[in-house]
Amino acid sequence: MSYQGFDPDEVDRAAHLLGQSREHVQQEANRVRSSLRNINRFHGSAADKARAAADQVAKRLDQDARELEQLAQALKTLAAQARLLNR
Length: 87
Description:
Keywords: Coiled coil
Shape: rod-shaped
Helix content: over 70%
Distance between the termini: 10 Å
Pfam family, one: WXG100
Number of helices: 2
CATH topology: Helix Hairpins
Coiled coil: 51-85
CATH architecture: Orthogonal Bundle
CATH class: Mainly Alpha
Radius of gyration: 19 Å
Strand content: under 5%
Number of strands: 0
Largest sheet: none
């Protein structure tokens, strides 16, 4: 059943895929943090720059994961509301 041109089940599937993407992005952030631990044994300006860059990447990935989760939740809400209107 559709409401105004979209299928709530399709929207739910999209939300599920976004949730999977969020998990992947979060795993990548964790991998970056893991490599940060490996960098910590090195010293000097190059190591400091590498740590700073890796930290920025990990923080951005965390933010991206949060935004993907928010979008997935918004899509789930949209699908649920459309189902209510279809009754």
